[in-house]
Amino acid sequence: MPMVVTDPRQQDGPIVLANHAFLELTGYSAEEVIGRNCRFLQGPLTSDSEIASIRDGLTKKCNVSVELLNYRKDGSTFWNQLSISPVLDEAGDVIYHFGSQKDVTEQRRAQEMEHTERTLLMEVDHRALNALALVQSFVRLSRTDSTEQYAAAIQGRVDALARAHRLLAQNSWEGATIKQLIALETPPISTYRLDIDGPPTVIPATRVQPMALVLHELMSNALTHGALSDPIGKIFIRWHHLDARLVINWREHWAAHSRPKPEPQFGMKIIKGTIENQLRGATKFEWRNTGLETQLSI
């Protein structure tokens, strides 16, 4: 076991004995450690609180046991399980400090990996539950005239969640921009018919799938009943920040100004439920002669 003996009666409590295991652990020679205080093992990331615990224990003449990050001669680090005991003379005065070290880097790494794994599993579980909540909501709210249409609608919405999931994975689960989410739901043939503009905005990872579902509903409606079903129709998408909220304006423009107002059943309930329940926001729909206008606030 690596160990040293220090002499508190000398100025700055220098090391007076260091065994071979200590020299191997730290990378120093005996000449480089004898006569120096042990603090040369400390570095920028060594915990101040652990250093304070050592200092407090030495002052109180009691045993000290801490785990702290130390530095070798070559600059590499190791986690040191340090134990310090005072050696007293017959009068009760401290004449030496005996310190033993143990490299617990691997154990520490294993503990950190276990913690990371546990945290990751909790996050995966949380995201899976969120996705299932979305699936349950649109399965419950979807309405169509036939079994085939119902199946196609459900499949399209599940596919939208899957696309958002893949995008999150590509972005290392750090969220996605609004532009990425819009592009995800825009058919390639319709890209030139979208006019989008807004400040750089990243949607947090936990809100990407709900937002993708909302955009899917709007885009599906535009393709089937709205601007993209018109040969020269266009969609204008704008967004801005207002206080602590993000406001998205979706405006469709049809060529046929006298086009009748569509029935509000294209997934408005899903959009409204997702925005209000999943994103804690509000929705506003308005049908004009020139097309649908939607405002989403999250």
Quick overview of this protein structure:
The protein is an alpha+beta fold and 298 residues long.
Structure characterization notes:
This protein is of the alpha+beta class and 298 residues long. It contains eight helices and twelve strands. The strands form three sheets. The protein has a five-stranded antiparallel sheet, sandwiched between helices. The longest helix has 37 residues, at 105-141. It is rod-shaped, with a radius of gyration of 33 Å. The mean pLDDT is 88.
Tertiary shape = rod-shaped
Judged by helices, strands and strand pairing, the structural class is alpha+beta
Strand portion: 25-35%
Mean pLDDT: 88
**How are the strands of the largest sheet arranged?**
2-1-5-4-3
Task: Summarize the biggest pleated sheet.
Answer: 5 strands, antiparallel
Helical content band: 40-55%
The total of helices stands at 8
What is the number of strand segments?
A: 12
Distance between the termini: 59 Å
Low-confidence stretches: none
SSE series: EEHHHEEEHHEHEEHEEHEE
Radius of gyration: 33 Å
Offer a few descriptive terms.
298 residues; 12 strands; single chain; 41% helix; five-stranded antiparallel beta sheet; five-stranded mixed beta sheet; alpha+beta
How are the secondary structure elements laid out?
Elements (H helix, E strand, L loop, with lengths): L2 E4 L8 E4 L1 H7 L3 H4 L14 H12 L4 E8 L5 E12 L5 E7 L4 H37 L5 H24 L5 E2 H8 L8 E4 L4 E2 L1 H20 L9 E9 L2 E9 L14 H11 L3 E7 L2 E7 L1
Parallel strand pairs: 7-9
Antiparallel strand pairs: 1-2, 1-5, 3-4, 4-5, 6-8, 9-10, 10-12, 11-12
Helix pairs in contact: 4-5, 4-8, 5-6, 5-7, 6-7, 7-8
